Amino acid sequence: MILCWGVNHTVADTAQREALALTVAQRQSWLQGAVAAGLREHVLLATCNRTELYTVLPDDAEPSCLDNFVRTQCARSHAVLTARGYRHQDEAAVRHLFSVAASLDSMIVGEAQILGQVKSAFAEALAAGTVGSVTHGLFAKAFQVAKQVRERTGIGRHPISVASVGVALAQQVFGQLQDCTGLIIGAGEMGELTARHFRKAGVGRLLIVNRTFERAAVLAAEVGGEACPVGSFETALGAADIIICSASGDVPLLDAAQLERVRQQRGGRPQFVIDIAFPRGVDEAVANLPQVYLYTLDDLQRVAAANANERQHVVRDAEAIVARAAAQYWANQRPNASQAAIASLHQKWESIRQEEVARSLGRFGSPNGAVATAMEACTKALIAKLLRDPILHLKGEGADATSVPPTPDAPPAEAHHWLRRLFRLGSPDA
After folding, report:
1. Which DSSP helix (H) or strand (E) runs through 182?
2. Residue among 207, 152, 199 at smallest CA distance from 181
3. What does the DSSP 8-state code read for residue 278?
4. Is the pTM of this model over 0.85?
5. Hey, which of 2, 199, 211, 325 would disulfide with 145, CB 3.0 to 4.6 Å?
């Protein structure tokens, strides 16, 4: 059984997702905690737009054990989980992962960063020892599907990212950017991406502030900007028309008091602030200052959604590729599950049959060979007839076997689970 539990930008806003933000140490704790909780294989994907756990459970396990584990890990955000969390199972979970990797479930459809984030999450789980044969094959297929989507559709032809949407928004406000000064707070991956977009858009002056000045200097040299020491942060704030915050900390890196101190020296000129950090790096009170306009990830999501219609034909093609790949992957998985369930069923009933035959023959003392042979044949025939319908159903050949599954030759997704529970067959790996 493959399960995905998660919360993402489609069901929770930035503040709610921040309640589930995980540090590297916390992600490691999740992975090891899942092992202790009895989850067989699992990969944890945690980005600014989603926190998702992909796991494999034995067929006789209850899906609720995943819910219980997640709630235990996230006691501080139980309300968000109850109201916003989702769970996908089996083919739906496969399809969701493929959509995520292919950037169809992203805040900005077609952005390139998510595939790298999925690969990083897989590598993290691999290092933690929580990747097994199923998750290994599942994620390998997800990477392949993402590549197919980009090669066969135009979804990656014109790369879009949160950073590029932020710069486009700045252009809508200021028009041409050659007379503007941009300030980027944070020189990490997102800060670098934003700096390159600003330079490409023709911003007149580009300032970069980072906790480590050396990193700011390296990025400034690469993009033709100016590195500013942390000590001159407020001077840079006063000069900036456009401020992009791509870094965060335990407290906001940019607060209202700082902008209020530099506002008067700007002579009433407006400032445009975009917070693309996660958790957020800009104090919400900034939005209340005169002539200061704050945009967050939620605002960028609305801008991206408004522009999504231009890419709908590409998205439809990509979704068709994902749907076919997920259906094929799950169809290939199902025969293995069916064979394991059928083998367990045969083993259990054959064991019962042999015990009963031995007990019955024992009552006759030493019966002749003909009696023993007849009893063997009779009981084997009886077991074969009793198991006929369950086995046909597992193989997808029963009279009602096509009532639930998405394809006519596949049994319902829950069949293996309920068969193991009803007959107490145990895990296929037991």
Report:
1. strand 181-185
2. 207
3. S
4. no
5. 325
> Of 4, 48, 180, 245, which residue is the catalytic one?
48
Task: Look up residue 310 and give its two tokens.
Answer: 């231009």
Residue 48 appears among annotated catalytic residues: yes
Residue 384 CB: number of other CB atoms within 10 A?
A: 12
> How many Å from the N-terminal Cα to the C-terminal Cα in the chain?
15
Secondary structure of 99-131 as H, E, C letters: HHHCCCCCCCCCCCHHHHHHHHHHHHHHHHCCC
Give me the DSSP letters along 34-90. HHHTT--EEEEEE-SSEEEEEEE--TTS-THHHHHHHHHHTGGGHHHHHHH-EEEET
- In the sheet where 181-185 sits, what is the strand order? 226-228, 205-209, 181-185, 242-245, 271-275, 292-295
- Nearest Cα to 208, choosing from 188, 190, 225? 225
Q: How far apart are CA 359 and CA 369, in angstroms?
A: 16
- Residue 416 CB coordination number (10 Å): 24
pLDDT tens track, the chain, 430 positions: 899 998 998 888 888 888 788 888 888 888 888 877 777 789 999 998 899 999 988 766 677 777 778 777 776 555 666 667 898 998 999 999 999 999 999 888 888 789 999 999 999 999 999 999 889 999 999 999 999 998 898 786 665 677 888 888 888 888 889 999 999 999 998 899 899 989 989 999 999 999 999 999 999 999 999 999 999 999 999 999 999 999 988 788 999 999 988 887 888 788 999 998 888 899 999 999 998 999 988 887 777 766 566 667 788 899 999 999 999 998 887 656 666 667 777 778 888 888 888 888 887 776 667 888 888 888 888 888 888 887 777 666 444 433 333 333 444 445 666 666 677 666 554 4
43: β partners: 54
Closest of 8, 25, 26 to residue 17, by C-alpha: 8
Those residues whose C-beta lies under 8 Å from the C-beta of residue 122, and which sit 6 or more positions away, are 43, 131, 139
Strand partners, 53: 5, 44
Measure the CA–CA gap between 164 and 198, rounded to whole angstroms. Answer: 8
CB-based contact 239:181 (threshold 8 Å): yes
Distance CA 220, CA 166 (A): 19
For residue 12, the 8-state DSSP code is S
Smallest CA-to-CA distance from 181 within 139, 236, 231, 220 is with 236
Q: What share of the chain is helix, strand, coil (3-state, %, to 5)?
A: 60, 10, 30
Nearest of 254, 306, 292 to residue 276 by alpha carbon: 254
